[in-house]
Here is the input.
Amino acid sequence: MGITMHLAEVEADKIYLQEKFGLSPVLYAESVGLLGPRSVLVHMVWLNDADIQKLAETGTHVSHNPSSNSKLASGVCKVPQLLAQGVNVALGCDGGPSNNDYDMIREMKLAAIIHKAVSVDPLIVPAESVLEMATINGAKALGLDHEIGSLETGKKADLVILDLHRLHTTPNPNPVSTLVYAATGGEVDTVLVDGKIVVQGGRLVTLSEDEVIAQANKHAQQVYRRAGIDIRPKWPMR
Here is the structure.
C-alpha cells in the first residue's frame, strides 16, 4: 500500500523535529520507515542538500504544490535541485482552502514560473518538465505509470482535449508552451477516463453541474454557521 503524507511544508515542521528528535523532516521520515518508492511526500519545502540526496537514494516521490505554498506563505520547494538529483517530482493542487481551485493547468503555469523568479534563471524548469510533472511523474508517484500518465499502446485511454482556438492562446507555435503558460482549465473541452467520456463540450456529463453548484453553496453556508464564521468582502458589494 502506498502512503501520501504532508511533510516539511512550513518551517515549524523543521524546527519541531529538529528540537524534539534532532533530525530533519526527511531523516525523521526515514527513521520511522516512511521513505521509499511507495511514499509520496507532499510540499517538501524546507529541505537541505542532504535531504534531497536521501530522497533520491530511496526513490521517494515528491508532490509539488506551488499555489498552496504561495498562498500560505510556506516557502518554495527546491524543485530544480530535486529534479537535478533525479527525484521524481509530481504536481498537486493541495486542498481548496489553501488554493481556491483544482485547476491543474493553472498549477502548471505557477510551477513553471515561480522557480525562474527564485533562481533568476529563465530557462529553469521548462514547460516540458512541468507537463511531465502533471502527467507521467504523477503516475509514477502512484505506481501506475504502466497504466496511465502517457498516451501509449496498452495504457488506459486517460486524456484531456483542449480547445486552444482562443484569443489568449493565439498564436500557438509550441502547443506545450501555450498549454503551460497561456491556457487554463477553461479551455478543457473533453476528458476521457479509461476511455469513458466524463467531460464533453466543457461540461460534466456524469453529474449535473447546476446541482453540484447548488449543493456546494447550501452546505458551505451550513459549515460557516456551525463554525461561527462570518465571511464578508472588505469592500461593499451589491
The mean pLDDT is 96. Residues 5 and 41 are 5 Å apart (CA to CA).
